[in-house]
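In this supplementary section we document a worked example of the pipeline. Step one takes a protein sequence of length 348 as its only input; no multiple sequence alignment statistics are reported here. Step two produces a three-dimensional model, which step three serialises into C-alpha cells for compact storage. The input and output of this example are shown verbatim.
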Amino acid sequence: MNAAIIDPYPPADVSATPFLAADVGGTFARVALMQASRTTGRDVEVLAYRKLACAAFPGLPELLKSFVDSVAPASARRCVLACAGHVKGDEVLNDNSPWPIRLASLRQALELDDVAVLNDFEALGHAFDDESANGSRLLCGPDAPAGGSMLVIGPGTGLGAAVRLPGGSVLATEAGQMDYAPHSIREREVLARLAPEGGYVAYERVVSGPGLLTVYAALCAMCGEAPRLATPEAVTAAAAACRDAQAVEAVEIFCASLGSFAGSLAMAFMTTGGVYLAGGFLHAMFAALQRSAFEERFLHGRSVRAFLAHVPVRVTEHGRQGVLGAARWYLGRGALRANETGTALQGG
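The serialised model returned by step three reads:
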C-alpha cells in the first residue's frame, strides 16, 4: 500500500503540536501521543503509549477514543495510521483487519483535522536505520555493519515486508501475497491439502501466525488425526517441548518457508544492508529458527549463494517501532509540504 493522504484542510506545523500515531495490526493496536523532539531535530518524542487488544473494541474510532480519553483529552487534532492493506476511497482494505477502517467516520468521531495513512511495514522501514542492529539478535550471516538497502519482514496476523533504500526512502510491498513456492515433497503435499483443486495460495497462508495453525491442521488431517492445538502460540509451545509431532513439523515448515521467502526478497532488492525479521512472534521462537532449515533455505543455491551469505539476518522485537516510524514519516511529510508551500509563496 502506498501512503495515502486524507486531509482536506490546509497543512499545519505538525512539528509544533502533539499528534496521534497508531500501528494497527490484526490482533493489537499500538497507539502513541507523539511530538517532534525539541532537542534532536526531526526525531520524535513519545508522550504516551499503549498497546491495546483490537478485540476489546467494536471499531478503530472507539479504540483511539479510549486512548485519547485516558491520556490525551482534547490535545491531538491530527493522526497518522500505519496499517496493512490499501486505501480505496474512504476505506482501508485489509483481509486481516478485525473491523472495517473508514477514515471519514474516524475523523468525525475524534474531531480530527487530518488523517494520514501509510502501510504498516512502510512505517517499520522508517523506524529502522543503521543503528537498528542494537537490541536485535543475529540469526545468520556476518555480525558486522553493512551499507545498502535493508529489508524488514514480519509474520504476524498477516505477512508484511518493506525495503528501506539508501537515503531513507522506503518502498512498501505486498510481498506476503505472492504465490507460495513449496521446496520439499512434504511442502507440496501440504500445498495440495490447502488447495486441492489447485490455484492461488499466498505466502502468508503458510508464513504467518494463522498460517502456522493452518499448516498444523493440514498435517493433522494428513495423518488422519484431529488437531489438538487451537492457537499459533500453542503450536510453538508444543513444538518447543516436543509434545506434538505435527506441531514440530509445522514449525519446521514455517521456518524453512520463511527462509525461502526472505532469501527471495533479499535477492530481488539486493539488500546488502541486512534483513530484519520483526515481531514478538518470531522473537519468541528464536531458538526454533536457529535449529531450523531457515539459513539453508535463505541462502538458496548456485551463484546467488555467495551474495546471500554476506547478508546479515537479524530478529528484533516489533514493539514501538511501528508508531515511531509512522511518526517520523508524518513529520517528514509535514516538513516537505511546508517547504513546498514556502517555495510556492516565494515564487508568487
